[in-house]
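Re: FE2/S2 (inorganic) cluster structure - here you go.
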Amino acid sequence: MKSLEELRKLRKDSLDQVDMRRSGKGTRIVVGMATCGISAGARPVMMALVEEVKKRTLQDVTVTQTGCIGACRLEPMFEVYRAGEEKVTYVHMDGEKAKRVVAEHIVNGKVVQEYTIGAYEK
Amino acid sequence: MELYRSHILVCGGTGCVSSDSLKIEERFIDLIEKNDLKNEAKVVKTGCFGLCEAGPIVIVYPEGAFYSQLKVEDVDTIVSEHLVKGRIVTDLLYKESIQEGEMQSINDVGFYKKQERVALRNCGVINPEVIEEYIAYDGYEALGRVLTDMTPEEVIQIVKDSGLRGRGGGGFPTGLKWDFTAKAEGDQKYVACNADEGDPGAFMDRSVLEGDPHVIIESMAIAAYAVGANKGYVYIRAEYPIAVNRLQIAIDQAKDMGLLGENIFDTDFSFDMEIRLGAGAFVCGEETALINSIEGKRGMPRPRPPFPAVKGIFNKPTLLNNVETYANVPQIILRGAEWFSSIGTEKSKGTKVFALGGKINNTGLLEIPMGTTLREAIYDVGGGIPNGKAFKAVQTGGPSGGCIPAAHIDTPIDYDNLIELGSMMGSGGMIVMDEDNCMVDIARFFLDFTVEESCGKCTPCRDGTKRMLEMLDKIAAGTGTVEDLTKLQTLAKTIKNASLCGLGQTAPNPVLSTLHYFMDEYEAHVHEKRCPAGVCKALLNYMVIDEKCKKCGICAAKCPVNCISGTKGKTVYHIDTEQCIKCNACLEACPFDAIKKG
Ligand SMILES: Cc1cc2nc3c(=O)[nH]c(=O)nc-3n(C[C@H](O)[C@H](O)[C@H](O)COP(=O)(O)O)c2cc1C
Ligand code: SF4
Ligand code: SF4
Ligand code: SF4
Ligand code: FES
Ligand code: FES
């Protein structure tokens, strides 16, 4: 460690690791991971989300899981919560779709309408 | 560095470790491996969360689920339910974090709501054995800025402006002390950290060292730069093995990263530090005794002046501060003197950490802004007195402090208010007493401690405290006289004035403050041979309350000396006080609360 710049770089890298322990701001992606979700393939979706968030070094984004969301036939699914926005529910997800949601919704703020529960129910 | 979807924080503070949190940690690691969650969930061992009473404690993020009083078996449930299926195990959550069936954020729980964490900000948040986690939360940023951007004078000015005062007991202005040491003549200077913490029941400093050891390293380096020292000592009791171990790990990591050693941040400043272990004598926390002990001599006080700032370790100018004092400094540098001085009261700035114990629901560690009232600390944070008992007094300042009665419970806590009430801030012990505590007994407890701990160098402290203790023993035994009460007071004054060090000078405080506020209780012992709280055994009498007695005979069957007489179903029972050995068996046995003591 020879300079403040070096320290700050290390801090930035380390912060991603501990970020989720700070309370409540930012974006939460919640994956349905009850029995049906897992058997429908929720785990690869979760892993893809975690990967993508890490690759893009997104701050204040946490990926977490929940139990039964209540619509087993639409699994794998996840919900995106952002401060000041309505919850968006994505259904019939897979790893590729999940990455697209991160790129378009989480990074650029544009909801991927075609994957949402609203589009599906129509 | 890996990113995980879940962090499992397991408390590794001394309280939780003694209730098996390490086995819980092990079980988590085990089950996470078995369930193939190794790349998703990470186990982090932290320092004390403060709610030791409810330990062992585990917090699972990102949900912030606060699990308490866990057993090793509970880990299986948490892993299979919470980690695998994502269902928070409500039954295992800390009761108060559930409201109307919903989990609240831990910051909204009564215990944490009124707290403000400056010195403890990383305790229970980071893994103290991983320097990167400290750095992630702005660690070593203050040191970097100080070294590259500020003169020593500027650093001292900020500390002065912040209004920070010593947290080790005396409350001396920290900036002023730094200034004295900086201005003292000397080719070699030292900084030292007092982590002796010998008060019964106190564990504030231990928790900082266990939960956030790097903050002490960073702060001592800042102090060394400010006063012109290049070497630091941390004096810590050998009885605190977890703290010693974590601090050593932290020192090694800091050295590896070049945050300790030569030319830190590529400047001219070099600084190194080492740990010195103390044998655990209370008097070694006194600054001159501590210095003697660091030098390898017997830990006995010497007269001051000269103060350590002029003649300290190896007769060189030495800056000595307490652990908690140091823990505030990096935040003051980063957030500014104005931020710090906006917290607290006019003459006591910032926050104070207390170890809350005695008759209180939330035994544990809390950090509250100066100026918080005793009532808020005891009822809002501490959760009040258990079993619906009445609050009687709170003892602050440990063996040097005093008891503050219920009449003053709305006093804002700060250095000056506590002194005015005949107590003191001390290092932060806070022991709550209820109606079942006898104040003569409490005074005896503390005086007994000082008699044991007096180093024996000067007569008033060595012999005077013994005489005082003898008088208290007499009073508790029912043989005390009115003269004893007056003699206690005159002797107390002599000891206060004539003792060499702070130990003797403050030793009479617990007696003086209880005499002042609870004279009626002392008088009851002396005149009526009665202990109103029913504690002093020699003065206890067990009696059957005739109106309540249902003539069941259960008490008589329990009495080991057969001194309870009566006829089952026919006559009210009666205790022969002469024969009674005060074993309490009958009182516990009576199903109708028909037996009282007093
Ligand atoms: C008998 C006695 C015991 C003491 N024990 C401690 C202690 O355990 N920890 C501590 O920091 N200060 C203790 N002190 C106070 C120290 O002498 C000294 O004032 C303090 O460490 C200075 O640091 P501060 O200005 O940061 O509070 C004790 C003083 C006396 C008289
Ligand atoms: S006051 Fe007590 S502890 Fe202090 S030097 Fe004298 S005898 Fe020792
Ligand atoms: S146990 Fe209680 S109620 Fe029964 S005889 Fe004894 S005092 Fe009376
Ligand atoms: S206190 Fe013990 S000895 Fe005394 S009356 Fe009750 S049971 Fe008997
Ligand atoms: S179990 Fe998956 S939605 Fe019900
Ligand atoms: S030691 Fe675990 S909460 Fe204090």
